[in-house]
Design brief:
This protein is mainly β. The chain has one helix at 2-16, and strands spanning 36-47, 50-63, 68-81, 84-91, 93-97, 102-113, 118-127, 132-142, 146-156, 162-164, 168-171. Strands 1, 2, 3, 4, 5, 6, 7, 8, 9, 10 and 11 form an 11-stranded antiparallel sheet that branches. β8 (132-142) and β9 (146-156) form a beta hairpin.
């Protein structure tokens, strides 16, 4: 009987010490209370006097020390070029970095452009200065002819020029084999 007790005790100790992998959670982790808090809000971001993006969120909290805005309650980021929306980002939450106007979107991220391309991922970074999207996590890119997967992506704001790391998937495109080396 003692053998079984020690065996069960040993198994309980082993299983309680294992690191549990949690499902995806955002990287939003700011301590303290926000300096300002607004609900059902919209923020317009300008670059050199031109509208660069609009962030719409169920709730936005401003943290003055970190110079960050935390957007939650489903967010939408409209990216503008020459006064028109070039792409849209929808996500569960995000961070707006006030110094750079960059945006990090987290959780059920969908990036869509008027070119018909849609990107699905868990995390996306909008780098305002370079006007690019970037992520290092798993992605799915859907076009009229392709469904491609990979881990890591970089794209221009219109989703016209993009690069997937470790791509795989299916395509309906015709390949001219005479042009292949």
């Amino acid at each position: 009987m003692k053998k079984y007790f020690f065996l069960i005790f040993y198994l309980v100790i082993l299983t309680s010490c294992q690191k549990e992998e949690l499902p995806y959670t955002s990287e939003i982790d700011i301590e303290g209370k926000p300096n300002q808090q607004v609900w059902a809000s919209e923020i317009s971001v300008f670059n050199e006097g031109k509208l660069s993006s609009k962030i719409l969120a169920g709730e936005i909290q401003k943290f003055e020390v970190e110079k960050q805005l935390i957007a939650t309650g489903k967010i939408r980021v409209n990216i503008f070029e020459n006064g028109k929306i070039s792409s849209t980002v929808d996500a569960d939450s995000g961070i707006v970095f006030e110094k750079t106007n960059d945006v990090d979107a987290f959780g059920n991220v969908v990036v869509h452009s008027d070119s018909g391309i849609t990107i699905f991922t868990d995390e996306m970074h909008w780098i305002q200065k370079d006007r690019i999207f970037k992520t290092e996590v798993k992605v799915m890119v859907v076009t009229e002819e392709d469904t491609l997967y990979g881990t890591g992506l970089e794209s221009d704001e219109k989703l016209e020029n993009w690069h997937i790391e470790n791509p795989y998937g299916k395509s309906e495109r015709t390949i001219d084999r005479s042009k292949l080396k």
